[in-house]
Structures are given as C-alpha cells and as structure tokens.
C-alpha cells in the first residue's frame, strides 16, 4: 500500500466512524475543506440507503 493509499484508508475509516468533515480536514492538514470533501468524503451505498430510510421514517411521523 502506498502512503496515499494509507491516508485514504485512514480518512475513509474516520468518516465511517462518524468523524466530521472538519475533524478529518484537521487530521489530514488540509487548509481548504473543499480538498477534503472532493478527495476523501465518499458516501457508501449503505450510508445512502440509511439516509433514505431515515428520511422515509421522518415523513411517516
């Protein structure tokens, strides 16, 4: 694994654990939050489904 691969994996794990974009930005040392968002903030299929499920439940109430 390359250093970049390790960095990418680390940030992906942080996001999956619920770390905020600002926390990951600080951890990676980016001065611009857009860099963090554009490169590292991937939304997994499960997370998209979870978000859709939460919204559906909200509409039901």
Low-confidence stretches: none
Shape annotation: elongated
Bin the helical content: over 70%
Rg (C-alpha, Å): 14 Å
- Sequence of secondary-structure elements: HHHH
Specify the number of helices.
4
What is the number of independent domains?
Answer: 1
Q: What structural category do the secondary elements indicate? A: mainly alpha
Overall pLDDT level: 84
Task: Report on the biggest sheet.
Answer: none
Estimate the strand proportion. under 5%
Number of strands: 0
Q: Between the first and last Cα atoms, what is the distance in angstroms?
A: 47 Å
Keywords: DNA recombination
Domain Tyr recombinase: 1-53
Protein name: Tyrosine-type recombinase/integrase
Pfam families: Phage_integrase (PF00589)
Describe this structure in words.
- It holds the Pfam family Phage_integrase.
- It comes from Ruoffia tabacinasalis.
- This is Tyrosine-type recombinase/integrase.
- Keywords: DNA recombination.
- The protein has 61 residues and is mainly alpha-helical.
- The chain has one domain.
- 75% of the residues lie in helices and 0% in strands.
- It is elongated and about 45 Å long.
- It starts with a helix and ends with a helix.
